[in-house]
Amino acid sequence: MVFNLPSLLKLTKDLLFKHREYDETYNQKVVNQIRKAWKEGSGADQYGRIWVDARFLHTILRTTKNNADKKARTAPQEDKRTIDGCLYIRGSRILEMMDRDRETATTAKKAANLGVSIDTYISMQESGDVEKIRTISRENLKQERSKLKKKRWAILEARGALFDELTGKPLVKRTCQFSHIRSYSLYPEVGTEVENGLLVNKETHSIITQNNVDNEQELKTLCEDKNWSLEWYEPFIKKFGGLKS
């Protein structure tokens, strides 16, 4: 399943941001089409991330619907969400697509139109409304994240199992760390969930970090390679569901 977000906090049509002005070499009808697609087909979540409704992607990317659908389907799993029953792609991934397509555009017209789409996205990202959302979110997440180690320790202590949840070695209370299963930065919507992490010793956490583990599938692969415990996996999937690309 693609991870779900219940709704967008603020739709683009409600954001206050400035549009760049273009000279007569630009087709104003196309400029308006692009702006309308962004306005009606995107918004910011509670963390200040922009998400784009895949149904508007062909206009934003200046391509065919079939090509846009393919790009949406093959986007990395961490950049896809289901919001109000529709597939959305993260704006930062759309920006990469636009920039790459502009570099390889076969006509100056297409490159210019993609530039309009890029400008619109950047203006949204830099709007005061979105920055305010990000500022509040960062502070709230920081406060909640600081409590996770203590919460997880209490859970293990109640079980009488104060051991590294992957290696089985005794936990060193002073230096052990709460290790997120789904990356805190990629999946902030579960970043403060105590079930989205394991209490491990510093050495274990260093190995996880060195292997660039960002989600449960990557952690499962690492556990199999290191012969670490997989007792966490089924309860995690039952709680959060699995990811797919």
Compact description:
With 245 residues, the chain is an alpha+beta fold.
Description:
With 245 residues, the protein is α+β, with helices and mostly antiparallel strands. The protein has 2 domains: 132 residues, no CATH class; 95 residues, no CATH class. 48% of the residues lie in helices and 11% in strands. It has a 6-stranded mixed sheet. A two-stranded antiparallel sheet has the order 7-8. The mean pLDDT is 92.
Task: Report the β-strand fraction as a percent range.
Answer: 5-15%
What average pLDDT do the residues reach? 92
- Helix content class: 40-55%
Please report the total strand number as a whole number. 8
Class of secondary structure makeup: alpha+beta
| Form type | elongated
Keywords:
48% helix; single chain; alpha+beta; 10 helices; 245 residues; 2 domains; two-stranded antiparallel sheet
Give the SSE map.
Layout: E1 4-5, E2 10-11, H1 28-41, E3 42-44, E4 50-53, H2 57-61, H3 65-73, E5 80-83, E6 86-90, H4 91-103, H5 108-125, H6 128-145, H7 148-159, E7 177-180, E8 197-200, H8 202-210, H9 216-226, H10 233-240
Parallel strand pairs: 1-5
Antiparallel strand pairs: 2-3, 3-4, 4-6, 5-6, 7-8
